[in-house]
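Lab notebook page, bench 4
Experiment: in silico fold of construct C2
Operator: M.H.
Input chain length: 184 residues
Purpose: comparison with the prior construct
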Amino acid sequence: MFIKTIKITHIFPCLADPEKIRFIAYFDKNVSKILPYLNTVLEGAIYNHLSHTLTIKKEGRLITIHPNKIAAGKILNEKDAKEITEWLKERINYCYENENSIEPSYERRSRLTALDIYKLLPGTNCKKCGELSCLAFAVKLSEEQVNIMKCGTIFSGDFSEKREELLKLLKASGYKVPNVFISK
């Protein structure tokens, strides 16, 4: 076992969502050497080799892993914070124990923007999703406030190429996408 403890030291109100919290926690060891392996294992991770940080989205939560600490936001409560640290400890230890069979990735993926999403939406502004425009929907989707499934138009036959590209892009960026919609 590489990491034995992750200690939550600070809990604050979340700046992005006042109903939630943010926290800072510290590892009992420096995890720098594990970050490229986590970058391989965790979908949608954004790795910065120069600053030795790895940022992930997990079910709407934003988590940044530094060599010695974790900073996380949009956390539901203290129990959720503890579950996140346990999950990270398990993932870090998994990577450490399996580093011989995991190809480390030093690739830096970029964050998905609303414009990236908008370019692949139908552009019909049909309002069936409940938003005034496809751009408004793209903004909410990029912030994970809505799910792609709310855009029924993208799932029509007319937009199959855009749909396929958008779903792959969303999945690669860590968004939840039903596998049934992605061809192999």
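Observations: The mean pLDDT is 90. The longest strand covers residues 6-13.
Next step: discuss at group meeting.
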